[in-house]
Amino acid sequence: MSTATDSASAPAGAEGQHPGATLRRAREAAGWSQRELASRAGVHQPQVARAESGQDVQLSLLARLAAPLGLAPGLLAVAPPPGSSPASAAAALHDTVADSFESWRQAWPSVNPEAFAVQTRLLRAGRHAEAAIEHSAKGHGITSGDLVVLGTLRRINASFEATPTELKGLLWISLPGLKKRLDRLHERGLVSRRENPRDARGLIVALTPRGKNIVDTLVRSSAEPLWLTLLETPPADLAQLSGLLRSLLARVEVRLGGQGKPL
Fold first, then answer.
1. Which contiguous run of DSSP H or E holds residue 249?
2. What is the pLDDT along the chain (263 residues), one digit of tens a residue?
3. Among 170, 175, 172, 205, CA closest to 191
4. Which domains does the chain show, CATH number per domain?
5. End-to-end CA distance of the chain
6. How far apart are CA 19 and CA 9, in angstroms?
7. CA 87, CA 154: separation in Å to the nearest integer?
8. What is the side-by-side order of every strand in the sheet holding 199-207?
């Protein structure tokens, strides 16, 4: 049985191409250089070059390179045809999660295997989302937590400002932890601080034009695969997915005593 530490000798796909060819074509379709993919995957550029050239690489490396491109290691055997849309390419990809259905049935016959599948897909999607936020924040010299603060200020009201206590309630973070984030953002000129006219001991934190520009640019022009995929999903499908996730989260958080963490 193949494992994540097995060496991938790049078997030929239906078009006689090794997995590296699919990686290269997906990277070029995204408009990324090898250095950019390496940065997003957390590896070194020579590792990308080795993978794309078809040299023997570890499947763990293929997995790391595939994730930012929205691929999975099992999908790398055949490259999508030139000019195909992301939706048509996705439809042709092999579903690696489905491969586990039979083993789930055999191990736990009384449990619906779809429950395992949903949990696995949520985990993978969550990892893509976290990686996208971290990469976007890193590109501006801030942390993912800092970016969440900027995003919260951007949408909180028309003046893009709030007290630390208001932010704490929305972000579910301690005041000392929030202060560290605000200090970093203030030093970079992304937020401003002034005295609260209604509380002489308090402050008002506001998003600066530079901070607003960072958030708006990321929302409008992000090249992160998960975000682009969501934007191109048909509205009806997106609404259905959102509704199902809302219902799922509501039921989970009821079991947790109603403790949800807003973003």
1. helix 235-255
2. 333 333 333 333 333 456 788 888 888 888 889 998 888 877 788 888 888 887 755 666 777 787 777 665 444 443 444 455 555 545 445 567 888 888 999 999 999 999 999 999 998 888 888 888 888 888 888 999 999 999 999 999 999 999 999 999 888 788 899 999 999 999 999 999 999 988 878 899 999 999 999 999 988 888 788 888 898 899 999 999 999 999 999 999 899 887 665 55
3. 205
4. 10-96 (1.10.260.40), 114-232 (1.10.10.10)
5. 41
6. 9
7. 31
8. 161-162, 199-207, 191-196
| CA distances in angstroms from 227 to 98, 141, 173, 231, 239, listed in the order given | 24, 20, 25, 6, 15
pTM reported for the whole predicted model? 0.62
Q: How far is 155 from 147, CA to CA, in rounded Å?
A: 13
DSSP string, 71-119: --GGG-SSPPPTT--HHHHHHHS--TTGGGHHHHHHH-TTS-HHHHHHH
Note whether 187 and 149 are within 8 A (CB). no
Torsion of CA 5, 10, 13, 18, to 10 degrees: 130
Contact 171, 148 (CB under 8 A): yes
